[in-house]
Amino acid sequence: MNPYSLIRPLLFSLDPETAHQYTLKLLDSAHTLGISQLAYGQQASQPVKIMGLEFINPVGLAAGLDKNGDHIDALAALGFGFIEIGTVTPRPQPGNPKPRLFRLPEHQAIINRMGFNNLGVDHLVAQVKKCQYNGILGINIGKNFDTPIENAVDDYLICLRKSYALASYITINISSPNTKNLRQLQQGDDIKNLLSALKEEQLKLQQIHQRYVPLVLKIAPDLTPDDISHIAKLLLEFAIDGVIATNTTLDRSLISGHPLANEAGGLSGAPVKAKATEVVRQLAAELNGNCPIIAAGGILTAADALEKIQAGASLVQIYSGLIYQGPALIKSIIKTL
């Protein structure tokens, strides 16, 4: 019996954002009492080595679930091979007005327009210092909503400097649809200038801290094949260490007619699966093994994860799948891969 199936109806009866906070509190309590290990057993081992890092298994938690790094130990107890926290910004910000999170159970989907709500990079750094987790920890960084797009690089540099010493890898999030103009950073000279500045800073920080922390770029599923090709060339040109494909989609074609279809925000879950896999497939062809791919988007079953690996990904990340299937999905994927 999957323990999650017993509590999911209760969680789904609550407002999605309330349910999110309640679930994280439940996980913290379960971890403190040692119940997580009883329910989900020991962390499964199926090592993968990429970016100079040894991942105990290929299933990670995508950014967005634990934006502030407040629940790292409790989430790690579920058996993930790696955890990604954030997106974090230099200064605390409330995010977009509520309601901003919507479930579409008929489509196994979620729409969110959270808007990088977080307590700021200093809070996240303090939380990471307090946690016991010693596995692979990704820190996902972004810009404040009120920082002009032409000054965005400054925000990413602040977050990179502050989180460098504590991260296993750092993700540059330029693909959230919920911060105005952010996706512009995926285009033309904007992305070139950003990657150039961050790579230069990474190498300086390597000298200061005497350790190399990989940089990973997170991209959208809504890019054209030409955009993807352009990004792939830049990943190689600037020796970026990895790429996450993909973030949420703005495409509503697979949920047209649904009462929530016109809600603004990024759509995740089953409807983004095919688009995300196609981006992975094109990136794999362009990168030719020279920059590893972490796949995210529409992974709700072990078969979905296998599809991403077969398309060319080295690792997978889940979020919506965790909401709909619960933590048993982690073991199921590891077993299948």
Question: What would your notes on this structure say?
Answer:
Helix 6 packs parallel to helix 7 (188-209) and helix 8 (225-237) packs across helix 9. This protein has one domain (3-336): Alpha-Beta Barrel (TIM Barrel), CATH 3.20.20. The chain has helices spanning 3-12, 16-33, 35-40, 72-76, 121-130, 152-163, 188-209, 225-237, 273-287, 302-311, 320-325, 328-336; strands spanning 48-50, 53-55, 59-61, 82-88, 101-104, 109-112, 136-141, 169-173, 215-219, 242-245, 266-269, 293-296, 315-318. The protein is of the alpha/beta class. The mean pLDDT is 96. The chain is 40% helix and 17% strand.
Which SSEs are present, and which pair or pack?
Layout: H1 3-12, H2 16-33, H3 35-40, E1 48-50, E2 53-55, E3 59-61, H4 72-76, E4 82-88, E5 101-104, E6 109-112, H5 121-130, E7 136-141, H6 152-163, E8 169-173, H7 188-209, E9 215-219, H8 225-237, E10 242-245, E11 266-269, H9 273-287, E12 293-296, H10 302-311, E13 315-318, H11 320-325, H12 328-336
Parallel strand pairs: 3-4, 3-13, 4-7, 7-8, 8-9, 9-10, 10-12, 12-13
Antiparallel strand pairs: 1-2, 5-6, 6-11
Helix pairs in contact: 6-7, 7-8, 8-9, 9-10, 10-12
